[in-house]
Amino acid sequence: MIELLVRWHDACHGTGTLLVAAGAAPRESACIDPPGPASASRLHTAFQMPLDKGELRQEHGAPSATGAPGRGRAVVYDVLPREYRMTRQRMLTFLVVIAVGTLSLLGGLLTADDLSAGFTYPFAVAWLALMGWLFYSTLRCSTRVDIKAIHVRGMVRRRRLAWADIQDIKAEASLAGAVQKGAASVLVHAYGRDGSKVLLPFLDDVHVNVEYELGVLLEAWAELRGADWTPNAEAAVVIRRRESRQGALTAGAGVTGCAFIPLMGLALLPLFVDMPEWLESVLNPFAVMLLGPLLIFTLTVVVDYRKRLRDG
After folding, report:
1. What whole-number distance in Å separates Cα of residue 82 and Cα of residue 73?
2. How many C-beta neighbours within 10 Å does residue 177 have?
3. pTM recorded for the entire structure
4. What share of the chain has pLDDT > 70, as a percent?
5. In the chain, which residue ranges form alpha helices assigned H by DSSP?
6. Quick one: which H or E segment has residue 197?
7. d(CA 186, CA 219)
8. Alpha-carbon span 196 to 174, nearest angstrom
9. 182, 204 in Cβ contact below 8 A?
10. Number of Cβ atoms within 10 Å of the Cβ of 86
11. Is 202 left (phi over 0), alpha (psi -120 to 50) or beta?
């Protein structure tokens, strides 16, 4: 049974890879005009095998075996600092959505006869304050890159990732892009010294050319982290386990989706085929459609997670 699930997962997994690869093609940058051709960087998404680290560092100007830098600091200084923010067009769209939604809500509140003023006005003030904070905080979100660190400003928190503390920088597929029109399908994350995963705001395929910008960051990281930089073994374990969990959950969702039609056929089988009473009770439509997906999802996640950890 488990071997059959693994084969089924591999088939669905391959189909998901083709779809993601087709939808995650990099676009031209909307915020930053590249000063030249994209460097020899590669996107490695959550559905692709990671690149060889030694090859990746050498491609992006890492120090060679003799200690000499690959491209030199002058190239890094030419492309830094860089800053990534929301584009003006998306900023205006965001403002319009908030304004229209707020006006609609307030109009309904103020015209409602069954709501007291003691509830309506405090709620309206609280809603206006919340929407104002949401818009202001979103505008302040940014990713700034200089020769000392990557500075990440989120809605409620700031992070500073020194180049020597960064363990990896990856572009990964986003499930939101597959289900929501206009959402980013490729996001870029940096991994801290403790293996923590940090989203780099607006460094995605909606706002920039991800392939080019990822190449710039990898080249800067290889040059500015220091010649004596070594990966943190504990952080590598944390990153590998997180990626394995994420991949296993994605595989579980894919296999469960593929199993929906067979489960429906199994649930309808007692209506057309005579079978023993005990088997008919087991194949109860409600039990099959409710417990079947949960069982398949759980088994797939467990099998896939252990397989990913074993394969390294």
Report:
1. 16
2. 20
3. 0.64
4. 76
5. 2-23, 53-59, 73-79, 88-111, 117-140, 176-179, 210-224, 233-258, 260-272, 277-282, 285-311
6. strand 197-204
7. 20
8. 18
9. no
10. 21
11. left
Q: Which residues of 204-224 are buried (b: 16+ CB within 10 A; e: fewer)?
A: bbbbbbbbbbbbbbbbbbbbb
Give the whole-angstrom CA distance, residue 133 versus residue 75: 39
| Residue 24 · residue 45 · CB < 8 Å | yes
- Cis bond upstream, residue 285 (ω within 30): no
What single string gives the DSSP state of each residue in 215-250? HHHHHHHHHHS-TT----HHHHHHHHHHHHHHHHHH
Listed residue (213, 97, 197, 220) closest to 147, CA to CA: 220
Share of the chain above pLDDT 90, in %: 41
pLDDT mean across residues, the chain: 77
**Residue boundaries of the structural domains of the chain:** 2-21+238-311, 88-140
Distance of CA 21 to the CA centre of its chain: 14
Question: Apex CA 282: angle with CA 280 and CA 284, to 5°?
Answer: 70
Cα separation, 102 vs 94, whole angstroms: 12
pLDDT, tens digit (0-9, with 9 covering 90-100), for 210-229: 999 999 999 999 999 988 99
For residue range 49-103, list pLDDT tens digits in order: 333 333 333 333 333 333 334 445 556 778 889 999 998 888 999 999 999 999 9
Provide the pLDDT confidence category of residue 277 given band limits of 50, 70 and 90: confident
Distance separating alpha carbons of residues 233 and 250, to the nearest angstrom:
26
Half-sphere exposure of 84 (CA within 13 A, CB side): 27
Which of 192, 184, 211 has its CA nearest to residue 87? 184
